[in-house]
Structure formats: structure tokens, C-alpha cells
């Protein structure tokens, strides 16, 4: 059977395209005319034009590279132009264009109304215990305790009691404050006696027994003094029925049963988040204290705030939340403008020097920073959570171990705290020549009671307490950290974490889990226990930050002849890895050496180690020869400057890091006429200028800065703050914010 012939396709059938596959196939889409085939339908894949790659050889921009492109500089230049026009305007024209923020220049003031320079600028320095405030034109500030007393509610009696001095039993002993304090006190006592033997100071063998026996004998024989015979009688505060709060010295003089509770909004140089439940409550107390201080000390009413500017002195190693909250608070109070200045820079301005290692010992903090040519070296900043209050507490405990006759002393009461501070200022010393058995007397004053006169004897207690600055174990830093980093929960009766509970840590917007608060490598080394003075050789990873699971490692061995390029120091740390403001168990002498070492490393670019020490002796001497001790923590201690120089020199020599080259030592040993200077000769503490109180030097520097021409570029107004917020400080501060 033959097959049927295949039909020949017609012309119309040849023109018709073949269909293959089902719906959705490429052939079907092409047949339908909706396939994205440029060759067939000429459709573009996008409605936007193609962005070609920039030729990097010809790429150039000057965006934000010129001052006239920044708003603040344009406004400042415009203001200067208006001031110049007003000075050159003919007399009697009456042209008076108001300047920014409603603040008038000297040219706008009539001749008969000329005011002293700085008379419209207020300098504010907030410490851990005191507030220093005054006009920049004044010679000295007004000092008032930074405390407020609120009338307690009916249910406000469930607060936790202050246990800084725990209850004593009937019979006192050396271990009455715990084994940790006993061991720390014994260690300091041993080193103290070694020091006395080294300097050939004679110690009576039974000195402590003589003190104890006398104090036991006079206990209970206090002399009662009538009020009219008491020259130092205290005028106790009698609050009015409508006074809801009392601030300053009047708050400290309140009777214990007055129904008020004392609060310190700032502690350890930070906001006191332990005693407050909301940031508004804390900032409200600060505002009340400032308003009362400005009215009582300077005579300024709230309606006059718009005529005054503020120079706010802030810590060197600050928290951004602390600085920004204070600036916003001052601007909301109605003050015209605010300018910030770091404490170390203010101290150098007040002392009249440009290069120094500033050691600021306050009531609760000790801050160290190296300043060169009027600028703080960032990696040299150190913040230790110890100060004059710790010396007071340690002295009180040591006196009670020696059977102090007034054994009912309780530092949670303001009048007993004042008594302990008085004993410290009068009798504590760091001068070896003053150490002997001494017979003293003091007056104990309490509200509603007659003044009591006590007699007592002391020996080594008056020097062991200040030595705690070099032996921080005596201050029980661990227990103190647990107290001020946690808060009391009334509901559970326990303590819960308090740090960053009201003011969260400032976080970096570009890096995940990284804090934007400033970080100092000196502080990191102290917190991690990796002091650079013990590094024998260069460590190429010395600039690397510690991780959450590790601490800074000691330097690895290397070759001194090599010149490794130091790695760029990373300034950002994971948020949970390290807290630069946590208490470090490091003595003051080690902290000074670490600060200077990191400052020299930042200047020279060499990693810390023996080679860096040899090649930077001149840089180190520039800081060690200009130690500047400010603050009120040790201002009343005789011989402290000599003790500090001795301790720093001792540790430099012990670590084989003398400030004299090794070749010079060999020459001096063989030559009778050669220079015989030692490390001690290159370390010195500058005396206060013009016999000024060291407590006032930092505030005085703020007043000096307020009179400089450059301050005109640093003012932050309410309009600036509302527009850019904290970013304003990047353009209007002397340091890198």
C-alpha cells in the first residue's frame, strides 16, 4: 500500500510562524509580541537611564571643604560684619541691629553703660560634691554643695539605709569592717613602715598601743559645751511649712528628723541614676539647684537669663548623654548661649601654662589628662572613681579601729560627714616628718543637742588613709562599685542594675553595637590590667581593642632594631566589651605613668615599650616636669606633692624606665663634674599660681577662656540646638566631640 503524498504548503502557510510549546513559552511570547527581545520590540529594560561609572582621574568636589559651606561659619561671619558696621557707623544715627540670640556687642552699649569684659558670661563647674558658679569677670567663684533636700511623702520611709559605716558592736576590733579592709589596711601599714625605715624615720615601737590605751581611757568623758560658749556653733535650718525643697548648705544643715531626704543629682562625675526613677526627675533637681544658686549667689532672676551666656566645664573623659542633657537643660532654662570646655584645658588656662599633665583629685573622682599646646591628648585621659570622700571614709574606719571616742559616728548623717571632713582637713597628712603620737581634740555638733568636746590620740591613721590613693584596695572599690552601679528596688527589697537605666549609652549610628562615647587607651589599659610600663618590647597589636572575651595581652617579644609601622588605633569598642568609666583598681602613681606613656605614644607614633621609652625621653620630661595637681580632694594635705613625685619616680626606676639615658648614667658615675641629675630631678609638681586655691584653678580657667576672642566661635544657641542638636558641637567645640 503506497503512502499518501505530503501536501505542499501554500505561500500563506509559509508566512505563518510555527507554534511550538504551550502558553508561556518563549515561542508563544515572541509570537504574541510581548517578549522582552530588544531586537524585535525595541523596549528598554528600565525607564531610567544607565549610570556610567565615574572617571576617578577627573573626579573632584569641594563639598563641606570650605568654611563658607558650613552654616555656622556663615552666620558667624555675618555677625562679625554687622558688629564692624555698627562700630563704623556715625554717632547719633541710632543704628542698632540686634545680634544673634539677642546678645549685644560692646559697640551696641552706650558709653555710660560699658560693662566689664565677661560680666554677661556665667562660668559653671559641676563637681561630684560642690557647684562652683560665678561671672567670668569675678576673681573667685561662689561654692555651694550640689545637693537638694525634698520633703518626704508619708510612704517614703522604706528607702535602703546607707551602710558605708556598718553598725559597731559593744567591743571594737581590727576586723570590725571585714577581712578585706583589714588585709588592705595591714598591707598599707607594712609598706608605710618600710617607707619610714628607708628614709630613716624613727618610730616608737608601741605607738599604736599608746593611742589605743588613751582613747579607751577617755571614752565616755566628753565635755559638754553650752551654745553661747561654742564659737563654731552651727545655725541649723528650720524649714518653713510650705518649703517643698531646700538646696545647698541649708539642705546639709537640716535636722535628721525634719522629714526631708537628701539627694545628690551628680555622683562620680556622672548622673546619679541610683537615687532617681526618671531622667526628668533628675534633670528637674539640677534645674532647681541651678536656679537657687544663680539667685542666691549671683542675684540673677529667671527673667534675666536671656542676657547671659554660659561656659560649661565638662569632664575630659565624658559621656555624651551627660554633656548633651546639661546643654539642653541650660538652653531650656532660657539662657542665651552655651559653650563647653574640658576640665584639663580649663585647668591649664587657670594656671597660665600650655603643656602639663593635669591631675584633678576631687571628692569622688580622680581625673588625669595630658595637655599639649592647649589641647587634650585623647589617649591620655584617665578617670578613677576615688577621691577625697574615700580618704574621709578610710580615715574614719582607721580611727574607729583605734577606739575613736566618738564611736557613734555615722557618715550617712550630714553633720557627721562634715565632722569627718573636718578631721581630715585638720589632721591628715602625707609628710613623714609629722608622724608621731599626737594629742588632738574636736567638737561634735548635732541638731537639738549640746556641743560635745572629745579628746583623742592618733598615730599612723592620719597618713594611712591618704595612702589609699596609691593602694586602692583600702577604699574597697569593688564594694563601692556595687553600691553606686545598682539601685534599691522597694518592691523586691533587692538591688538591681542602675547604670544606663535612665540615660542610655550613646550608640554609633554607623557601626552595630558600638558606643560613640569617647575612649582613651590609657583608661582601657587600666581597666584591663595591662599597664604599658611592664611591656618589655614593642607590641604590634597594642592599638587593637580588647574583645568581650579577652583583655589586653602583654606585649610579645620583638627586635628593638626593627622599626615596625604602628597600626592605626581603633577608637570604637563593642558596647558590652568594656566600660571606660568603670572603677579601675589602679593606684594614682600607675595612672599618672600610664597617662604620660599613652600621650607620648600618640605624639611619637611609636608603640609603647622599651624602645619608645628610650627615644622619647624629652617628650616624657615635658609632662613629668609639669605635673599640675588641682581639685579639693588633697588640697589640704601637707606634703602630698612630694609624696606623688617620690611614688612616680620609684615606679619608673623599679620598671627600669628612668628619665635619664643609660649613657648619661655611665658618664656620671665616672666623672666628678658631670651632671648628677636623677629621675627625681625631672619630676616636679607646679605650685598654684599666685597662691590660688587649687580648688578654684579649673573654674578660673573657664573665666579666662570666656574672655578670649575664640569663644565667639564656640557659642551654641537654642536655635542651633533645635536645628542640629548634638551635631552642633562638632563645629562649635575646641575638641573633637
Automatic annotation (TrEMBL):
Going by the entry's taxonomy, the superkingdom of the source organism is recorded as Eukaryota
Question: Where is the region Disordered?
Answer: 1-42, 82-102, 535-579
Residue stretches of biased makeup (Low complexity) = 541-558
Which Pfam family is an annotated match for this chain, by its short name?
Actin
Q: Which InterPro entries match?
A: Actin (IPR004000), ATPase_NBD (IPR043129)
Q: Which PANTHER family match?
A: ACTIN (PTHR11937)
Similarity annotation: Belongs to the actin family.
Q: What protein is this chain from?
A: Actin-related protein 8
Q: Which organism is it from?
A: Geotrichum candidum (Oospora lactis)
